[in-house]
């Protein structure tokens, strides 16, 4: 089904473009009302601002607000500055409440003050309340477009209230039952209201055991609840257990995507920004600023590797073959550490483990890395035996002896790298930080340094050289 929808999207865009080029405005507007909102919004995004305004004028107010909600924030702001305040306020009032609040926060204080007098009382109060919550919390991402009924109503009275309140048809997932102080008592489904006797009381059918989010709860935690309990939406309650909003599963998907992108950027040593745009829309200098801090810092720390190599310069002069397998040692350690860190950070972010499990996690990674080290050691020995059999060695040493030493050193490197890769995110989490900041380049740099120490220490001790 998803594949068919993906195939349909280019066809929709082509159809809209053909109607536009042929000047069939009436047919085009009719298609705006029938096609998915996102397809229409993407089509308009590519058009000149004046043309977008003309298209919007031909739609009814509800459709204007629906399509406007799917515009990029840049286009929304451009339309705000282009339209007169009264016209914009009418569209603004039809937008989805959470997106409306996001747009309102993008306006300057002066622009907010200019707009407020043109808004209906309900919209004005709604946008001020939603804008007051930090964007990283449930309150900052919730919408107030939901249906409520009173727990002491009959099914018939409840349906009548829903029709009167007329929430967005996209938001009637669950019907939330409250008392007359808006304290949430439970929920029922629309199916419950329709299928039962109209005289049945709501509180007789009420599901009193429900999952909810607190208004100041972190948005990532809210998204995890929606995912864990497979919810279509989750109610948001304040400290008095009053229903103040809901967070939909669509919003949860956006949150998870943003958090994954942020974690991936951190893990790859890229400093995320609050105002990040798409890759091509972001300037080269902005990309440079995000990457340069980690890169320069780690390059400076990498000087330690050079100092270690310089310290063992005499060993390398006698055993050139050791230098030949240093890149393999570094690459193997870096890959092992990054693998372990990725697995642990993912498990932490999904709530599968926590920092209290650190001993079990490290022990498990030790077992895994031991098995990996055996495979790598065998491969290293065979590689040296087949590719370096002709290498010159100091008197008294055999190629088999050297191969065993290098293989043993790299196997220890695999184990230590896995412990470092798994341990560092846990340490950061234990200290109250974000495990994703233990960036992959940072782990690779640390593993390189420890790997060189292991490599040369094993070589000098086992070969009896200094």
Automatic annotation (TrEMBL):
Pfam families: CBS (PF00571), MgtE (PF01769), MgtE_N (PF03448). Keywords: CBS domain, Cell membrane, Magnesium, Membrane, Metal-binding, Transmembrane, Transmembrane helix, Transport. Its main location: membrane. It is found in: Cell membrane; Membrane. InterPro entries: CBS_dom, CBS_dom_sf, Mg_transptr_MgtE_intracell_dom, MgtE_N_sf, MgtE_transporter, Na/solute_symporter, SLC41_membr_dom, SLC41_membr_dom_sf. It is a multi-pass membrane protein. The chain crosses the membrane at residues 292-309, 321-348, 368-390, 402-424, 436-458. Residues 142-205 form the CBS domain. GO terms for molecular function: magnesium ion transmembrane transporter activity; metal ion binding. One of its GO terms (cellular component) is plasma membrane. Acts as a magnesium transporter. PANTHER family: MAGNESIUM TRANSPORTER MGTE. Belongs to the SLC41A transporter family. Homodimer. This is Magnesium transporter MgtE. The gene is mgtE.
């Amino acid at each position: 089904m998803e594949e068919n929808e993906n195939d349909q999207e280019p066809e929709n865009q082509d159809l809209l473009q053909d109607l536009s080029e042929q000047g069939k405005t009436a047919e085009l507007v009719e298609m705006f009302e029938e096609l998915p909102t996102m397809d229409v919004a993407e089509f308009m995004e590519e058009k000149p601002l004046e043309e977008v305004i003309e298209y919007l004028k031909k739609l009814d107010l509800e459709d204007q607000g629906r399509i406007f909600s799917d515009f990029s924030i840049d286009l929304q702001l451009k339309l705000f500055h282009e339209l007169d305040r009264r016209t914009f306020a009418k569209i603004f009032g039809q937008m989805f409440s959470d997106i409306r609040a996001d747009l309102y926060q993008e306006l300057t204080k002066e622009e907010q003050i200019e707009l407020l007098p043109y808004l209906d009382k309900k919209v004005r109060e709604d946008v001020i309340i939603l804008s007051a919550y930090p964007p990283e919390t449930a309150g900052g991402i919730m919408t107030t477009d939901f249906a409520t009924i009173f727990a002491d109503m009959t099914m018939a009275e409840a349906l009548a209230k829903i029709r009167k309140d007329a929430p967005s048809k996209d938001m009637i997932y669950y019907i939330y039952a409250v008392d007359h102080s808006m304290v949430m008592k439970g929920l029922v489904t629309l199916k419950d209201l329709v299928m039962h006797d109209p005289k049945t009381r709501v509180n007789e059918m009420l599901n009193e055991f429900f999952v909810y989010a607190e208004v100041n709860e972190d948005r990532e935690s809210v998204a995890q609840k929606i995912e864990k309990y497979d919810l279509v939406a989750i109610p948001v309650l304040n400290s008095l257990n009053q229903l103040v909003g809901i967070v939909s599963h669509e919003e949860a998907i956006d949150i998870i995507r943003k958090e994954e992108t942020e974690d991936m950027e951190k893990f790859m040593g890229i400093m995320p920004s609050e105002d990040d745009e798409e890759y091509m829309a972001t300037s080269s200098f902005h990309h440079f600023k995000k990457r340069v801090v980690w890169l320069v810092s780690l390059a400076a720390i990498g000087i330690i590797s050079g100092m270690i190599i310089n310290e063992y310069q005499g060993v390398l002069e006698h055993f050139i073959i050791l230098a030949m397998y240093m890149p393999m040692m570094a690459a193997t350690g870096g890959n092992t550490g990054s693998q372990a860190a990725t697995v642990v950070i993912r498990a932490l972010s999904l709530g599968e483990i926590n920092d209290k499990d650190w001993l079990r996690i490290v022990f498990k990674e030790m077992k895994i890395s031991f098995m990996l080290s055996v495979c790598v050691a065998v491969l290293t020995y065979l590689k040296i035996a087949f590719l370096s059999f002709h290498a010159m060695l100091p008197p008294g040493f055999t190629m088999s002896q050297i191969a065993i030493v290098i293989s043993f050193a790299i196997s220890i490197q695999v184990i230590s790298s896995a412990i470092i890769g798994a341990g560092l995110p846990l340490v950061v989490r234990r200290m109250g930080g974000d495990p994703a900041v233990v960036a992959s380049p940072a782990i690779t740099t640390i593993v390189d340094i420890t790997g060189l120490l292991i490599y040369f220490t094993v070589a000098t001790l086992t070969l009896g050289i200094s």
